[in-house]
Amino acid sequence: MLATNPAQPAASHWQSVTGPLRSEFRELLDPGRLRALHRVSGFRHALVALRQVLVGALCAWLILRFPGRVWIWLPAAVLLGFVVFSFTVLLHEVVHTDVFRRRLGRLNALLGWLYALPSGLSRSQFTRWHLDHHAELGASDADPKRHRLTPRIVRRWYKALYLTPALFPIYFRAAAREAAGYEPALRRRIALERAVTMAAHLGLLAWLWFAQGPGVALRLYIVPIFLVFPVAFTINRLGQHYDIDPSDPAAWGTIIKSNPVWDFLFLWSNFHMEHHYFPGVPCYNLPALHRELRPVLDRHPMRVRTYGGLLWDWFVKNRVPHTHW
Known about the structure:
The chain has 16 helices and 2 strands. It is an all-alpha fold and 325 residues long. It has a two-stranded parallel ribbon. Helix 12 (214-241) crosses helix 16 (307-316).
């Protein structure tokens, strides 16, 4: 059941090196319990998505209702930025067909459009990029996220750019370079989807600026999207594959110490290595999966990290990504 996503290539790098790990899973984990954790529920997914919509709406109301009270609208804008980021996690669930018991192609496609829209992504690019990342995890050049998006300049000032609006040109430049090798039909679809999402964002920003005023545009759009989203993205990414043990495929991701705040903000995507072990497990079952995996994790010398510790190592100690910190 390791790496069960049907879209993942059978001869991937990840599959080729994880035979011993799969043996450990068969030896130590209960197959019935794993099957139960793989069960998806469209209803539970809808509850998670509805929660994010309601939290985002509440944040927007607070921002509009209390424009002169920075101690109210600023925390609301920060939370709204994390909500926008969370829709990339919901898109990620669609990519792995972790939403419905049956794969409903048209509905999945619609959800992909809706979840990609808040962050301006192309759903097709995200799908191809992410499944290639799963297939080639551990390969320095074949894994597109590692090859294209990881900072190549190990300098604090350059790393800090990922916390700023500079993240957007960095990300889209990396995505464009990777997409240059895709088949023409997929490139055309990516271009169309990106044009639609970008037009939607520019239209919303223009309407807020000219119809509601620059102050509203600043508080409701610029701060959450351009200032908070990059921070949420970077913190989440630090907890994925930056502090790893290159010699052990079981430790090619970081184990994050869970707490209710990060579970809420990141929709359990902080259980990232667990997700790589079993990508067919929906996000709301990842905490339970982590508990089931403890016998395997205890066999491997993986240090449980916090986001605060990772940020310290990344920026203060200037650690090199994809190495053992």
